[in-house]
Fold these 2 entries.
Entry 1:
Amino acid sequence: MAHEIVMLGTGNAFLPNGRHHSFAIFDRKHIIDAPPTALISLRQNGININEITTIFITHLHGDHIFGLPFLLLERTYISDREFSQPLTIVAAPGARKRIEDLCEIAYPGSLQKILSMIVWDENAQGTTVDGWNWNRFEVNHNDSVDPFGYSFESSKGAKFVHSGDSGPCDSLYSAISKTDLAIIEMAIPEWVPSSEHHKPSDIQKLSERLPGVHFIITHTFIDSKNSAMPKITSKEFPSHPSNVLHAEDGFSIKWENKWIF
């Protein structure tokens, strides 16, 4: 069976026109983060909430975890009322308490049972039940939200890296240099004075430095090319190198001995 990654959402926190918040799923069961638009993203792609077995948390900003109460509420009262489907949340130490507090604020008392049944994995490395090895590593973002990226490798040899939210940093670039596919954020235009996100020029330099890696842009500030609405921040796409693809919501990548776009 081939592996598949689907970009369920590709927008940054400000929801550029035609994009949901940055959100990815692989093999229809493992999701990376759970943004506020997670439920609609999953439903539009025909994925049942109770099919999800693992949630990998990159960091604790609202556009990456504020969908968790809604996912857990749906699972509790609609798709898994018997609590028969196991669910693991992979997150850094300390994240569990903040996530549980968020869920209690959102729906007081309604999520206690499912929260008590979740398997919380705070290890820096691990393996999913279907054979994906994963490794969590620190990245360059706001330290108060515990920012991490992840590298993944399946038992069949498929490999990819997810940056989470991160500006340029050695830990991320080292991980990317060991893979052939990187899902990487590009959250801000050149004029924004921040080093905690990638800008178009950063992606240009990195993709030229690692020409053997395919880069999938997510968490972008640029409106979808399919949107006819007035621009939010920008409608203009950079002239990316050939190994860079600016993904749209719903974009799928499959692996059959190599990644197929």
Note: The chain has a mean pLDDT of 97.
Entry 2:
Amino acid sequence: MRIFSRNVSRLNAILFSFESFLLFGILYGGSCLRYLYQNGAEAFWSFDAPRAALKALVIVVVCQASMYLNELYDYKITRARREFTIRLLQSLGVACILLSILYSLWPDVGIGLTTFLMALPTIILALFLWRHLYPHVLKSEAFAERVVVLGDAPSAGKVLKEIEERKDSGFEVVMRVTENGPERVRQEGAAFVPETLSLTEFPRRAETLVTDRVIVAIADRRGKMPFRTLLNCRFRGIRVEEAASFYESLTGKILLDEVRPSWFIFSEGFRKTTFTLQVKRITDILMAGILLVLSSPIMLFASILIKLDSKGPVIYKQDRVGEGWKDYTLFKFRSMVDNAEAMGIQWAEEEDPRVTRVGKIIRRYRIDELPQLLNVLKGDMSFVGPRPERRFFVEDLAREIPYYPYRLFVKPGITGWAQIKYHYGASRNETMEKLQYDLYYIKQMSFLFDLSIMFDTIRVVLSGRGAR
């Protein structure tokens, strides 16, 4: 749960696990019933249970991968029944194609056409019924974690907003505590909470408070922080957490507006052990080598189309800033007209007129990034890391945005946490937003985190979102 909490909420993980067991139960049960029908109850003792379980597990893995990549575990997208229906049928269709290819290569894992056709409508019906019940599960007390938000800092409003928008987060705000109580909340126009209190009333109510977590969002703590009350809460088993830390775990990004340098110094994370860096480098070499071989036909075809479509070189070279402010030459397929920056350096825009016809396609599906695999093999880049930028932009943004230079403490990457969580950043505000994800990645960097980002990258590439 701690490993994958960066990608999914607690309830989302429960949803994924339950549906995996549901699929497995239907498929394995179908195999048992078919064997009984063909051989009779007296021969059931000879049923090969491990083999049947393996066959069912293969189907579960393929189906769940298809459903995840089609964003069926994004509650914001699949809340509408029609959208869920379309995506479910699409996912199962893709799963059937993938399974047919797999069975042709490895016939022994095939579950049998009759069993599969019997199980398929049962799977669809079961998933429909379960997803109908899931919103009620989200609201049940067994899964909801009660939260009290304490303080008037801007982070309090941001925490409330995120919880309100993330219906599947598993958090329920039961009380808001501010300096002026209900009057302050009305002035802010904040999200509705069942009860509001003033800061002076909180110590008395805390003795009988039924909650699981207190989120502290007090900007000026001198003379205002109820230390003794919060200490009593801790000894009663209630979790007390700073708003910045809670926001980080909820959103997968660091709240730069309010964190102080001391927060970075004393918080957990930012560990770059020799073992972690060596594993990361080995993974980079293996992934880059394998992808270069697998993508070579695509790269050859893209090269021909680029050459036929417009004048100029196929490979575009550009200086970028890497780890430790070191410049290196980045390789990309050219997706813009030749001499696109004749009028000066500028950000890429929506519907940028400099992008060629072929360029629009290769940018949408990130094919233009494939030559960067050579940069990974050379050691200039990693497979996963912050997006590389040019020195002109880096120096300009480093002057304007706090903590921006700290993203250069790791190698830039072809893909990254910011790239899959946020669209292309082409302004100061968007760059600030992406920086919050980049610093979170650097803080939590690990082999398993990199693997989860790589898997999510497949989903982003297939959807074609965020390209510019």
Note: The longest helix spans residues 274-309.
